[in-house]
Amino acid sequence: MKKSRLILSLLLAFASTLASAQSENPPPVKEDFKPSVLNQPGKEYPQVNSQGYVRFRIEAPDAQKVHVSLGLGGRGGTALTKGADGIWEGTTEGPLDEGFHYYHLNVDGGTFNDPGTLNFYGSVRWESGIEIPAADQDIYALKDVPHGKVEQILFPSKSTQTSRRAFVYTPPGYGKDRSKKYPVLYLQHGWGEDETAWSNQGHANLIMDNLIAAGKTQPFLIVMTYGMTNEVKFGQLSSFDITPFQTVLLDELIPYVDANYLTQADPAHRAMAGLSMGGMETRTITLANPGVFSYVGLLSGGSISMEDLEKSPDFKKNVKLLFVSYGSRELDNPRRGPWGDPKENTAAVTAAGLKTHFYVSPNTAHEFQSWRRSLYVMAPMLFK
């Protein structure tokens, strides 16, 4: 029963990634469209206006039907209209939420990416991406500040009999003083994504650079690896077995990072967090291994209940901070999974003596703007 409820909650969470609610009499669409910041060099479309509407233009003169599949806005998608010149064009029915969204084209029944924009790994494939300018985009803006590095590593994995990939963010100045050691955050992506998501879609490195430059957080490493979540289909997530990934993380990746980077290799300086399915992985692993991580972040990925603390009493003893976050529109959904109401659960474990922080991203749903903001708020709270 719990597994079926979990699948239902996941489906509802992904389906809840909708655009801003439209009024009965929306204002006219402003004709101030500009190319998206994620467009390929020299490409004029797609375009975004100041209200958050998106306009698409696709050259497909022999096509019979072109539709933009954009589950994160435009009420499920946008049908394009063919002009006399063979160019298909259309504008979303409504504005999209601020931040990043995946989309792709359906052309005569086939699935294609938009040649005008960059691609990002999501939905278990490389998808087109669109960015709606946000009022708080300064938190992940590319600024004239010292920048850290994001580097790829290949670490040996005996359990999977292969080398696995991870990306490691090292803060500005890392390595100049070989005696200086750093805390580490292990940060997980969601279902359908991979280890590139947090730096490409989430701008985790820029968020950290800006926080560090502003003196709002201490420097720490971020390790991002593939959570093996895509090895089951979305409708079959009840069959997902976390054991293989837990082995990779605890027995192979963490020892590799501690051996090859300047880390403070103890639980007090180690955190784990993740978005959506990555949050559920974080929840499962940290409850089962309470002596490994002292800071836990669940970003749209469930919550910790009193029942969890009863089953894992050492979690409360060892965890210095539990950070739980959701988009405001996710909390509007009455079905929140087998773990119950996340806000009520967090309040209950707080009253029981666990240090927590519950963050709500305004006017967003199950989407990257919620998680970018969550990382921005969570990072200064880590490793206190």
UniProtKB/TrEMBL annotation:
Keyword Transmembrane helix on entry: no
Coiled-coil regions, chain positions: none
Pfam family of the protein (one): Esterase
Superkingdom: Bacteria
Signal peptide start-end: 1-21
GO molecular function, one term: hydrolase activity
Protein name listed in UniProt: Alpha/beta hydrolase-fold protein
Originating species: Imperialibacter roseus
Lineage of the organism: Bacteria, Pseudomonadati, Bacteroidota, Cytophagia, Cytophagales
